[in-house]
DNA sequence: AGTGAATTTGAAATTCATTATCATCATAGG
DNA sequence: CCTATGATGATAATGAATTTCAAATTCACT
């Protein structure tokens, strides 16, 4: 964890940047915080530690992490971007449109089929996004918990 | 085509709406125009026929079509929404991040696997979005056409 | 520690797609 | 024609994200 922060710092310096307190705090909180976080959520979390961090810095830091491939930018269509650590392996998402819960899954067979589809179209894929929207177990219509409206 | 417009008009009336010239023009141009269109593009196309149509009406109409399930709202992550006819069967997209071209594909095996994944998670899917980003044939790095940077 | 160039910061201003407002217009039924 | 109500288009408002900018911080070099 500390070594991760060091590694990132190093990379920033290599790019011609300088270390900074606020940014380091944002990065640390980002990797400790629950995933699929919005900038607003992350800003609040950071401010618990350092009240004076501006949201502009959070926006900047999260974009920087995405540029360095340490974070992934997500968009579940609700009007604000979310971010997740990019340290874990690639995965796709199930998004509950009732409670907003996000579940992750891996399905190598889907990945393979995507490669095939791309190849069939002479297309060189660099990334993809597969989001499945619907209702999670708790919010499912007809579920016992929801029987009485 | 005319029958489509009539059918939509009928549905709007059933919802408690009235017919209107501007809206009818937007709808007709929408179904004649190339797909994956932005509101700005659609507004320009409509104004070739009727200079006085306001973009607010185009926004409203396209949202209405989406609500009535005649149109689908798309978001390829470039900051503006796109719309396509929802008369054709479901399909997913290949998006070139160089030239912006969009290609469509159907892969029933992917659809099936998605159902399975959802079921495994006790999730009731209502829709999904699969976008593959990369470089199309023309924009592919290493392509003859791009050999000289 | 001091100096100075370069980067970063936080607040505020700006951007830009989209939505809401509202006075006016069009539609449709009696 | 009348009237009720929905629709329009110009404009204002919204809100997430970006940019601006003066002040603060970092850091290599004395
Ligand atoms: Mn995830
Ligand atoms: Mn399409
Ligand atoms: Zn749920
Ligand atoms: Zn291309």
Identify the notable features of this structure and list them briefly.
homodimer, about 150 residues, alpha+beta, Arc Repressor Mutant, subunit A, Dna Ligase, domain 1, 2 domains, three-stranded antiparallel beta sheet, three-stranded mixed beta sheet, about 20% strand, globular, binds manganese (II) ion, binds zinc ion, DNA-binding
Explain how this protein is built.
Chain A is of the alpha+beta class. Chain A folds into two domains: 2-85, Arc Repressor Mutant, subunit A (Orthogonal Bundle); 92-142, Dna Ligase, domain 1 (2-Layer Sandwich). Helix content of chain A is 42%, strand content 21%. Chain A is built from five helices and six strands; from the N terminus they run ααβααββββαβ. In chain A, strands 1-3-2 form a three-stranded antiparallel sheet. Chain A has a three-stranded mixed sheet with strand order 5-4-6, covered by helices on one side. In chain A, a hairpin with a 5-residue loop joins β4 and β5 (102-105). Chain A is globular. At the A-B interface, α5 and β6 of A face α5 and β6 of B. β6 of chain A pairs antiparallel with β6 (124-135) of chain B. The site of one manganese (II) ion has 6 residues of chain A, from loops. One zinc ion binds next to loops of chain B. Chain A binds a DNA duplex (30 and 30 nucleotides) through residues 16-23, 39-40, 52-57, 59-60, 63, 79-81.
């Amino acid at each position: 964890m500390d070594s991760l922060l060091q590694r990132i710092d190093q990379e920033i310096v290599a790019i011609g940047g300088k270390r900074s307190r606020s940014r380091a705090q944002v990065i640390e909180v980002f990797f400790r915080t629950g995933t699929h976080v919005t900038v607003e959520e992350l800003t609040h979390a950071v401010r618990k530690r350092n009240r004076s961090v501006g949201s502009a810095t959070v926006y900047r830091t999260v974009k920087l992490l995405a540029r360095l491939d340490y974070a992934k930018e997500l968009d579940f269509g609700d009007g604000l971007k979310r971010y997740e650590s990019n340290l874990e392996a690639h995965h796709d998402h199930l998004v509950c449109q009732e409670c907003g819960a996000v579940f992750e899954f891996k399905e190598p067979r889907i990945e393979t089929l995507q490669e095939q589809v791309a190849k069939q179209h002479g297309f060189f894929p660099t990334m993809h996004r597969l989001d499945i929207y619907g209702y999670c177990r708790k919010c499912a219509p007809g579920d016992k918990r929801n029987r009485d409206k």
